[in-house]
Amino acid sequence: MQKNESSCELVDADQLSVALIEAQYALKNTRGQKNAKSLVILVSGIELAGKGEAVKQLREWVDPRYLRVKADPPYMMQKDRAFWQPYARYIPAEGQILVMFGNWYSDLLSTALHVSAPMDDTLFDAYVAQMNAFEQDLKNNHVDVIKVWFDLSWKSLQKRLDKMDAEDQRWHKLHGLDWRNKKQYDNVQKLRQRFTDDWLIIDCEDEEIRDQEFAQYILKNLKHLPNYVTQVKEKWQQAEIPNELLKPSTEEMDEDEYKAELKKLTKKVAEAMRFDERKVIITFEGMDAAGKGGAIKRIVKKLDPREYGIYTIAAPEKYELARPYLWRFWTKLLEDEKISIFDRTWYGRVLVERIEGFASPVEWQRAYDEINRFEKDLTDNQYVIVKFWLAISKDEQEARFKAREETPHKRFKITEDDWRNRSHWDDYLKAAADMLQRTHTFYAPWHVISTNDKYTARIEILKAILKQLKAD
Amino acid sequence: MQKNESSCELVDADQLSVALIEAQYALKNTRGQKNAKSLVILVSGIELAGKGEAVKQLREWVDPRYLRVKADPPYMMQKDRAFWQPYARYIPAEGQILVMFGNWYSDLLSTALHVSAPMDDTLFDAYVAQMNAFEQDLKNNHVDVIKVWFDLSWKSLQKRLDKMDAEDQRWHKLHGLDWRNKKQYDNVQKLRQRFTDDWLIIDCEDEEIRDQEFAQYILKNLKHLPNYVTQVKEKWQQAEIPNELLKPSTEEMDEDEYKAELKKLTKKVAEAMRFDERKVIITFEGMDAAGKGGAIKRIVKKLDPREYGIYTIAAPEKYELARPYLWRFWTKLLEDEKISIFDRTWYGRVLVERIEGFASPVEWQRAYDEINRFEKDLTDNQYVIVKFWLAISKDEQEARFKAREETPHKRFKITEDDWRNRSHWDDYLKAAADMLQRTHTFYAPWHVISTNDKYTARIEILKAILKQLKAD
């Protein structure tokens, strides 16, 4: 089982320190480079095994300024956030190293050990599978993850407890478990073996070996950070462009009818979102001038301004580029708004980034699954995601561009970028077709809305929200 | 008293909307420009006066994507954080507008109205003075602040309460106060008049006037954002460079003595920091190669890695430059680490930014007071700040630079920037002298440590920490 268990040869501590610092700086110097990486080190283990001491020793050997340490009390697994949400904002930028004492596995262990009824193995394993998938997504996006379990035999644990004074022992019991209870100890060991297959297991009997084995493992990993970006093997299967994108409907709505409907629907939508027990995410993608801003205005019309947030997504900044592309969305969702509206989204990865070449083929081709997992994690955890693609015909876009240029107070809405994007019209249609095909899921379906007629579009959008919230 | 009370002329709503959107985009387009600004709008007022409705109407008139709204439950004024700390991270970047329902004044009001004993007027006024000073600092750093009080007469308030159903009334009572109680109403009015002198007071009797007066006031302010960066009038009084900077001591310490002392002091320092009831901030400034990294290593030697964070401050990123220069430190202190160590600090404003011209004379000359206020706010609120200037002689620096270039595993520590900074040696001495003279306060004193001898320096640093924590 414990295939990573290794006997460790002690090396000269000064040399180890120099090698670690060099590796640290080498990593730091990848910043902004093509091979840029960061490293997350998850540490967990048996009480008193000494993970704190091992990290302390590591931080003495390295340059402590470039080894960040996070320690959170456990977050119990619960149904209103994905397991990675409490940690997402700390995912390090390129060149950085982060040690996480509190992490999703320790949360899972805590939860499994503390829930009144024991956690079902199937559920436990499902969580582990999700965690592995999340880590693989991190790795694919330049954040390497290594995991270390600090192990201690029952006998050694009891000996160490014997040596402590009563006050300290009580404190250790407060950490959540009675480490004098053999059944509990065995249970921890049994549970952690369900996920530690790909961990380094350190036997912490000997403190010097413990510290060196930990540091050497990190050194080894720093020196050989794997490159997960491989060649694309298969030819890309381009989806057929659906007719609703090629020739968006031009059905028109009468103004009086629109006004009456709008009045009714804005109220209904506001209430549906407000009283839905889930947090609501509404996202917009589509060609420029397709009417995203106008649609958003109508969605929020009957909401109190304190009930919602709008996120307008532009090109990422440098500090955002230094992290996985989903990071800037993870952190926005942490604001905990009841209703979040995104004017452009994470789909930029498979739209503009694909078309402009900011993401390599292997990166954007992998992104569909990553995005599906991201949305699945959210919808599994008390979010509902309503996704819109606003479809417009090329002629109608041109008409709107020209109108904007001619209207003084709309001139600011049109830029050279808009004309440039227009020149890639067919590429965007292709990219949108692929996106719709690959990310239209039962838990986060797409709504394609023709916006050639603004009135019809706005009404359709409001109706689609009601329908997805099952409030129609 | 209410000098801003105005009668408002109604204008055409569509024209008002266009003007607001244009002003909004004009602000947005200042991003990255010399005249860049952002705007914070604080709103408070009497229950049922309709501040929520007015902001809702405003958000309908403007482009809602570029008007952010924050609403927090009140933070009671308490002694473990400065009043601005809960809000600091939301201070908007250049080009952005933020409406704050929850804000430092509503917190102060809530606190004054809810504490078991009424808040002393002197204390209340002292808070208000601090808030005004903080806002002036924001304004000086390109964040304009406008404040609007939504007022309602006792009679109208009672009428509006009469019209509500019982369930809603209970909810309004839950908002904290019994608005049926005339004494409480009068008390709110009496208290808020202690701070609303420079607020716009809107009489919310008429809803249309209320919404227009609010929107027109914002429009007026957006159109005429004041420029607080004025000419420097007086000649700068350069401080004399103290001898300890010109000729740092070269006293040496014997290795055995050092080792014995170090062992004793690292333990003592760890315990002093751990058991101090305040949060501890330790900051380092000084010439390159003065030994900041080495000193930090010794300070944290006996700490658990989970007890402290180290912040290495490099050149600010674009998103940081878009905010007041203290913003990136405000946000770091929110991490709530018990012990925070800064390798370079906010003093960059009056050191590198002064010398390289990144801050204008009026900006860096104003920064001393701003920094003093910042540190005062922290030390008034359960922080202790231990500030070090590490002084080294020019010869010793050169020797260390050369040694670094010759030692393989230290070569990464030396860059061209280091040599360039060295060429500004005298400028840095002058800037340091001014800084020491103007920011050496009783609540956050400087410790100037000669680091020509590393052993002596490290021991002195540890002793200085003990002394300031009164643990020596």
Structure description:
Chains A, B: This is Phosphate--AMP phosphotransferase. Chains A, B: GO terms for molecular function: transferase activity. Chains A, B: Pfam families: PPK2 (PF03976). Chains A, B: Residues 30-223, 253-471 form the Polyphosphate kinase-2-related domain. Chains A, B: It comes from Acinetobacter defluvii. 2 copies of one chain form a homodimer. Chain A has 472 residues and is α/β, with parallel strands linked by helices. Chain A folds into 2 domains: 13-223, P-loop containing nucleotide triphosphate hydrolases (Rossmann fold, 3-Layer(aba) Sandwich); 243-468, Rossmann fold (3-Layer(aba) Sandwich), CATH 3.40.50.300. The first copy, chain A, has 20 helices and 10 strands. Chain A has helices at residues 13-28, 51-61, 85-88, 104-114, 121-140, 154-163, 166-174, 182-192, 207-223, 243-246, 255-275, 292-299, 318-321, 327-333, 352-356, 361-379, 394-406, 416-423, 425-439, 454-468; strands at residues 38-45, 68-70, 97-100, 143-151, 200-203, 279-286, 308-312, 339-343, 383-391, 446-450. The mean pLDDT of chain A is 91. Chain A binds chain B through residues 18, 21-22, 25, 29, 52, 55-56, 59-60, 63-66, 68-69, 71, 99, 101, 293, 296-297, 300-301, 303-306, 309-310, 312, 317-319, 343, 409, 412, and chain B through 18, 21-22, 25, 29, 52, 55-56, 58-60, 63-66, 68-69, 71, 99, 101, 293, 296-297, 300-301, 303-306, 309-310, 312, 317-319, 343, 409, 412.
